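RECORD TYPE: protein structure
NAME: Eukaryotic translation initiation factor 3 subunit H
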Amino acid sequence: MPALVTGQLLGLDIGSVLEVTNCFPFPSRGGEEEEEVEADGANYQLEMMRCLREVNVDNNTVGWYQSTYMGSYQTAELIETFLNYQENIKRCVCIIYDPQRSGQGVLALKALKLTDAFMELFRNQNFTGEKLREQNLTWQDIFQEIPVKISNSALVSAIMTELESVSPATQSDFDRLVLSTNPFMEKNLEFLIECMDDLSMEQQRFQYYYRNLSRQQAQQQAWLQKRRTENMSRRALGEEPLPEEDPNNPIFKPLIEPSRLDSYLITNQISNYCSQINGFAGQSFIKLYMMDAVHENN
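PREDICTED:
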């Protein structure tokens, strides 16, 4: 798997438009202590911002970018990063770039943000089934994709025009005509199967919780029935009845419901893989029909 990269996005928040005008990468360091890496990373960012300010470049942080492999980005770490950024930046975005998908002649670039309803639940760490039903929050309500418009300055456009090949076709056009689909399809199917296994494990975890909950409720009912019978006997003898709940009894200790966040993220990732496979399969059929027509004409 190729190394993933990430970096800071700089720009301006103007009205309803968030302009990303510059960026710089974060250093990648392995094998060092986490505290040292965080301290060095913070100093590096401050120094980069100072240098950019000196050359009159927009140095306002508006989010971050990160690369992904086959569209695998729906993780709890991504959500925590969003929250850390939004402590200081109300409207921040994350730009996701997939170099493998872009290598096939398609610009695989998307800008994401978290929905307000999901962020509120995540701050409270309350992902129980009851709370999710109250908020009417589904796995589709985690991320919100923001439309992206790419534009160049007049100087960059002029340089690109000078560098543009006189050939009517570009390398991206040829990449889109490649018939081989094995690497992309195999990896997507492999990751899809792994996600299905993870989702199955999450379902087993919830089934185990509900079995224990049903067993506990049955034990509580049996204990209450026994206590009520005992209290009837005590009342008949003129004695004070005993309380019908005993907080010291283990069967009255509430069971902690597992968080549904992981299952939501896994379901989101499964949907992403299915969309990629579906889209790529459709393009492959078009290529095959086109090649069949070319062979018939020849």
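COMMENT: The chain has a mean pLDDT of 84.
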